[in-house]
Amino acid sequence: MNCITLKDVSYKYPYTEDFVLANINYQFEKGKFYGIIGPNGSGKTTFCNLLRGMIPHFFHGDLSGDVLIEGQDVRDWNSDLLSTKIGYIFQNPFTQISGIKETVFEEIALGLENLGVEKEELIERVVEVVKLLKLEKLIKKNPNNLSGGQKQRVAFASIIAMNSDILVIDEPTSQLDPESTDEIFKIINLLKEQGKTIFLVEHKIDLIAEYADEVIVLNQGQIARSGLTADVLSDLSLLQMGVTLPQATLLSYDLQKIDKAIDTISITKSQVKDQIMKRVGV
Ligand SMILES: Nc1ncnc2c1ncn2[C@@H]1O[C@H](COP(=O)(O)OP(=O)(O)OP(=O)(O)O)[C@@H](O)[C@H]1O
Ligand SMILES: [Mg+2]
Predict the structure, then answer these.
(1) Counting atoms of ligand 1 from 1, which one is nearest the CA of 48?
(2) 166 compared with 278, residue with greater pLDDT
(3) Whose CA is nearest to atom 18 of ligand 1?
(4) Ligand nearest to the CA of 17
């Protein structure tokens, strides 16, 4: 089932000359995990704003083409309803923290409170995400005093608590160490397994290779490449665009040069390992 459909979409912010997104066509299916990658300034955050209806409901400017969310034109959606249907995690966690709540627990509950969720259910849902994100030690702390990484996890928790069908996540791990990054990816994958549709902007390409179903590469506001993760992330021409490829992809190409050591290009470490094992007969 289609979740979001984009037909010939172009967009220009108010008071600017150039289109930031141009001629975008794509059909996003419900329940899939989409990785969005591209060089700095290629339009990834703007693309997120389009997917979650902030364009045109909050950002005005010129929008042309069709943006259909569950079959209905974005312009006809009620913007409050959209914000509950589509959860958004900001690129910068510092902007996500409300600044009006004194504890992490209240901060995570804020979105639910605004939705008018009953107290008992609210507490239950907050406790559940606190456990999921291992935030137990932080719940009594003031959100304003947390580190960047802790803020990022709290922001993530408050969005998960809302239980939206679609999640648009803009670089959620920029402030996190490798271990916490892995944890966040595992949680995103869990949310996908629960049937949610995920859009994730992320520079950590090895993790996109492991988890995303499809990848969209943006370059200068256009979709430069798109499709199944394994196809897109084995395309060496992306390097010229300034897009990083997974370590495993580069290693695969090197191994192929050496006496055709492996027969197919792999994009994750475990796949390369399997290929080598097969080759050496283990
Ligand atoms: N609110 C805005 N008003 C006008 N121009 C904007 C606005 N936000 C972004 N832009 C411009 O749109 C282009 C794309 O920006 P965007 O933030 O979408 O890219 P990005 O791929 O997310 O970049 P990054 O990798 O740095 O996060 C840039 O040229 C940027 O200057
Ligand atoms: Mg961005």
Answers:
(1) 18
(2) 166
(3) 43
(4) 1
Distance in angstroms (rounded) separating the CA atoms of residues 98 and 95: 8
Q: Confirm or reject: Cβ of 44 under 6 Å from ligand 1.
A: yes
pTM score above 0.85: yes
Let me know: does 161 contact 109? Beta carbons within 8 Å. Answer: yes
Q: Cα(264)–Cα(250) distance, rounded to whole angstroms? A: 12
Same domain (yes/no): 162, 253: no
Phi/psi class of residue 204: alpha, beta or left (left: φ > 0; alpha: ψ in -120 to 50)?
beta
Amino acid sitting at position 172: P
Q: Provide the token pair at 24.
A: 């975008």
| Cβ pair 246, 268 in contact under 8 A | yes
Total tally of structural domains belonging to the chain: 2
Residue with CA at minimum distance from ligand 1 atom 12: 20
Q: Residue 182: CA atoms inside 13 Å, Cβ hemisphere, count?
A: 2
Residue 188 in domain: yes
Nearest CA to ligand 1 atom 16: 43
Each residue's pLDDT tens digit, 43-101: 999 999 999 999 999 999 999 999 999 999 999 999 989 988 999 888 776 677 888 88
Judge whether 89 and 168 are in contact, CB under 8 Å: yes
Ligand 1 pocket test, candidate residues 13, 15, 18, 20, most atoms within 8 A of CB? 20
DSSP at 171: -
Task: Kindly state whether residue 239 falls inside one of the protein's structural domains.
Answer: no
Domain that holds residue 212: 2-232
- Tell whether ligand 1 has an atom less than 6 A from the beta carbon of residue 242: no
Query: Please, are residues 212 and 7 in contact by the beta-carbon 8 Å criterion?
Result: no
**CA 38 / ligand 2 centre spacing (Å):** 10
Per residue in 215-252, pLDDT (tens digit) is 999 999 999 999 999 999 999 999 999 999 999 999 99
